[in-house]
Amino acid sequence: MCSSFARIITMKLLILCSLSILFCACQSEQRFRMPTGAMIPTVKENGYVIADTSAVRPSDINRWDMIVFRSPDTVRVYGKKPEDLPLYVTRIIGLPGETIEFAGPEILVNGTSLQRLDGQVGISYSGLAAFPPGTRKLEGPAEVKLGNSEYFYMGDRTASAIDSRFLGPLPIGNIVGKVLRVE
After folding, report:
1. How far apart are CA 69 and CA 180, in angstroms?
2. pLDDT averaged over consecutive 10-residue blocks of the chain (183 residues)?
3. 86: helix, coil or strand?
4. So what's the pLDDT on residue 19?
5. Bond preceding residue 41 cis, omega within 30 of 0
6. Residue 114's pLDDT is what?
7. How many domains, the chain?
8. CA 87 to CA 108: how far, in whole Å?
9. Domain range spanning residue 125?
10. CA 125 – CA 103 distance, rounded (Å)
């Protein structure tokens, strides 16, 4: 009699634990507002995305993924705690360890031309990535070597987006989540 009571309690605990794990997994999806027009036409200005906030490991982030992030520039400039800063949506172009180069309207990744997604236009300006550190003089093709935990990001609206071309690589610690869908 005592062993059947113990089995019933054990089964109930297992079911409760399973439901708790399932509930926690569902809570990793969050809704975020895109405050700028940098991702037009994919995400409208002040539009919303749903992101998986558990997908912030390097193995979960791929080229062309859209992410929610805290800008490294706002962390540095405003001196606030990262969790108090605005969040943005962007697209990952370069992965850790890669070399990103701008050659006219083309983006090269490790020397190979990057095929853009449908609807994206060519790059007309490589931004500050074109300037060697400490100078304002263009000296040949713009090239950025990413560290082991850095990403290169760009907005879909490349003509006006303020992204890695201006702010530099994005550390993985600034990525809040991976976008699952646009609302």
Report:
1. 14
2. 69 63 64 84 88 85 91 64 76 93 80 72 50 45 84 84 82 92 91
3. coil
4. 54
5. yes
6. 82
7. 1
8. 28
9. 27-182
10. 10
